[in-house]
Amino acid sequence: MASGKTLAFHSYKGGTGKTTLITNVAALYAKNGFNVGLLDFDLYAPSLSAYFRKKPSLFLNDLLTGQAEISDIVMDLSSELGLKGKFQVGFSSARKEDINEIELRHDTKWQLQALRRFLAAKEELFQKFGLDYLFLDTSPGIRYWSINILATADYLFLLMKDSDMDIEGTRKMINDIYDSLTRFGSKYYVILNKIPGATAQPNTPDEINSVKELERVIGAQVVGAVPCYCDIQFSRHEFLFSIKQPNHPFSTKLASLTENIKSMI
Amino acid sequence: MDFQGAKGDFRIFSFKTLAVSIATVSTLAWFFLLDTQLISILKGTTNSFFWAMFGEVVFFGFAIVSAIAVSFLSDKVSRRNILWVWITLGVVSTVSLMLIQGVLLSLIVCGFLGISLGLGFPVITAFLADNTTVEKRARVSALIMLETFIVVILGFVGATIFSLSLFSIVILCALIRSVSYFSLFLDPCYRTSLKSSSYREIITNRSFFLYIVPWLMFNLATGLATLVVNGFQSPEFVSAYNLSVPIRLVGAAAFGVFGGVMADRFGRKQPIIVALVILGSSFAFLGLAPSYLSYFTFRIISGAAWGVLMVVYLAVPGDISSLGSKEKYYALGWSLPLLIYLGLTDIPVALNVRVDSSFLSPLLTIILFSAVIPVLYAAETLPRRKVRERKLKEHIDNIGKLIEDSKKKSGS
After folding, report:
1. Binary contact (B406, A111; C-beta < 8 A)
2. How far apart are CA B327 and CA B108, in angstroms?
3. Which residue stretches of chain B have pLDDT < 50?
4. Model pTM score
5. What span, in angstroms and rounded, lies between the C-alpha atoms of B22 and B410?
6. Which one of A109, A232, B102, B364 counts the least CB within 10 Å of its CB?
7. Considering only alpha carbons, which residue of chain B is nearest residue A180?
């Protein structure tokens, strides 16, 4: 019986920094010696292959259509990144025809069949690859494949920015979807990202109350608040900052977030 | 009320829904039971078939006029007071049937009976629409019609088993009607104080027009079908008719539930179109091959079509109308068709008009198939967002089952 944990990162809308956060957090776990998997299930706008600058021949799309096994798809990037634990990454196809196929395949029968294949692949990743944690990147918003993947996760992390639109959208998503997903045993939390200002952790009573108020409005616990750093936000190619520049405030913040997450799960 | 018969959330219980159910079911059941016996009762009180038929025309006529009249008063008079008068008039006028004799008194009582039907019907259906969400309205309507048919069937069975006299049936009808009082104890039946639209605005409402025309055409066709039915007098057709009566009732109830579920799941247009096309086809079959088998089939199919359309059209005026205007939409949505149906059933029966099925059936088929056209142009009243939400919820349920199975297999 596999005992690994599955963590999915999701957001109401794009641009919340989900891919940056998930890649850095996953890499930190691997740096700390855990065997980690990272799968790009943002099937409608995949970005991990560009992020890691890889051109795989097989994709997660092939797994879902039954044309490839997970062992043929994932790549272990631990040695090239200098990580202590395994870092198995699986990518999605950015080809227009593959994205279109996912967009059009809405029939329940195909989706459930594809999901069965993924569940079997997940089991294989935990058992044969010995993963401790599996990170799943998802497409933002309420889309069928986001929901499919979120439902398979043990822990859901909703990323949001501290704006009225994000707050309202996240709250609605929690009411519409997340509360249903908790029936399957999932737990969900919120991570605030790209917070303006230098304060990484609410220190003053006003800041603490503001987080508490946000938790009350959204209906979910906030497990971390990551400030906005221009050098990361506007970098042409941010790449595993938490590993490459461990002393940067962003990296220390992520390390703290990683510890928070580990203690909660 | 909870009914778990298909996927989806079927929790539609509330005291308001129960109050509406009780009032509507008892009134409709009272109407169906009484209507089958009214001619016989009036023949006894007037000693004339003609005056008995005229009395029924008065009954329906006053029902229609009072329905229209109450829709003008509904935003001026308390809903609760209207319902009190409606129910009391119904019970008293029903009991009066046992006490009257002579043409004049019979016609007066028929008038009051009609008012006791029409006065509250738009009010109670508006109350139903006010207190149901659009995605559950058709199922609530289906439940109400199912309960109505159950009461009617039980009434018929009871009357047959116990060989009830007309007098006893009248008492039974009065008792059934008096059950409506419970609704007033369950809920205060308040009405929103919003002003209602004018009838001119309603008649020129495109959506309402496109939905009401097919309903009128359906009533026109089924009313004209009485002329065809009148032509079948041989013993085989009579026994086919008698056999079809209970099956037709059960079919109407069952298909009403089916229609309500479909209307809330896929939208109102599909069940309307299917009912019209299937009934049109049965008319074609009847015209091409008139026999007691095709006649029997037609009777069953028309019962099913009535079941579906009554349920859907109990929901549609509520979908289209704004708060404050529902009484007028329901008054028009039900009075006009009733007027047409009345004119085309009781009058030919009274005058013993008969028409050859091979002549009329093709015409009825054309009417019903043509009735589909306005529906195709009508905007769906069930919002697409509700259909998407339901599909999403069902998708999540399907995924949940898959994940549970997967966890069981992996032993976690």
Report:
1. no
2. 26
3. 1-12
4. 0.77
5. 51
6. A109
7. B396
